[in-house]
Design brief:
2 domains; globular; mainly alpha
Length: about 280
């Protein structure tokens, strides 16, 4: 016998309830059953692939295709900097390394990416930085002078500490503090050749030195000659010379060595790409 409650029968209620209940597809049933094992497999596979191919599997890090320098960032020569725009990261690095003498190319190759990345970050002429580094340390990270200057940029400990403090006050986030995953991805082979801690040490010495050079350049109204002398002799001595109308850079052995290195690099570059070499001495 059919029982009723009001106008709707119990049978009608059961029928409506059954029809309202959605049916799971075969895919839905499969996914709900194997969801956890599938996610575990995907995660395991991703980490495995990242370990094998760190340049490809970056987990959110994205590297631009070319280095980007403003034309006013270049120093001693005036020219078309399409060299950077027309060459990928790897191509630009390889071509710059080839500009150096054979006996030091291996050392230059180890530092070229950090130098270009940090120079781009602070918009400073990378050829100037490489020339100063060539003169100061000959690209030896472990170099220490008789006076105690250290690293690729041969910075005195007290100057290094002062500049590093200024950078932190200005809220400048150091490249070396961006984490191991980022450094592994961004610096690729350099990371594996040196290891995490040595790379961090090298990046800090480089960035502090580059930031110091940038500050000197601004202090001397973008005069690369005065800034180069100041890097060697100190800004106070250089400013004192200028205030007293005394020569700065004349017959200066250090400046001449930096200029020689700079002209060697850029003269060769101007012959191989669309760059105009115009010496300013």
């Amino acid at each position: 016998m059919e029982q009723t409650t009001g106008d709707v029968s119990v049978l009608d209620t059961l029928t409506v309830t059954a029809e309202a209940k959605p049916k799971k597809s075969i895919f839905g049933l499969f996914f709900s059953t194997y969801k956890i094992p599938l996610l575990s497999l995907i995660l395991f596979g991703s980490f495995s692939l990242r370990a094998l191919y760190p340049e490809t599997f970056s987990f959110g890090f994205k590297r631009q295709k070319t280095y980007r320098f403003k034309s006013e960032s270049l120093g001693f020569f005036i020219g078309d900097i399409s060299f950077f725009a027309n060459n990928s990261y790897d191509e630009a690095e390889a071509r710059i390394v080839e500009l150096f003498p054979d006996k030091i190319q291996k050392k230059v190759k180890k530092v070229i990416r950090p130098v270009l990345i940090l120079c781009e970050k602070h918009q400073l002429d990378p050829f100037w930085v490489l020339s100063v580094m060539w003169t100061e340390s000959h690209f030896k990270h472990e170099a220490t002078s008789k006076k105690g200057a250290r690293g690729l940029m041969q910075m005195m400990p007290e100057t290094y500490a002062e500049v590093l403090g200024d950078m932190k006050k200005d809220g400048i986030f150091l490249e070396s503090d961006r984490g191991e995953d980022y450094l592994r991805y961004q610096y690729g082979q350099s990371f594996y050749d040196m290891g995490y801690s040595p790379l961090v040490s090298k990046l800090r010495n480089l960035e502090v030195g580059i930031f110091y050079m940038k500050g000197l350049l601004e202090s001397f109204n973008n005069n690369h000659y005065y800034a180069t002398v100041a890097y060697n002799m100190g800004p106070y001595w250089t400013k004192s010379q200028l205030r007293n109308n005394l020569p700065v850079g004349k017959d200066n052995h250090y400046l001449n060595k930096v200029l020689k290195a700079y002209y060697h690099i850029t003269r060769t570059l101007s012959q191989n790409s669309n760059v105009t070499f115009i010496p300013r001495i």
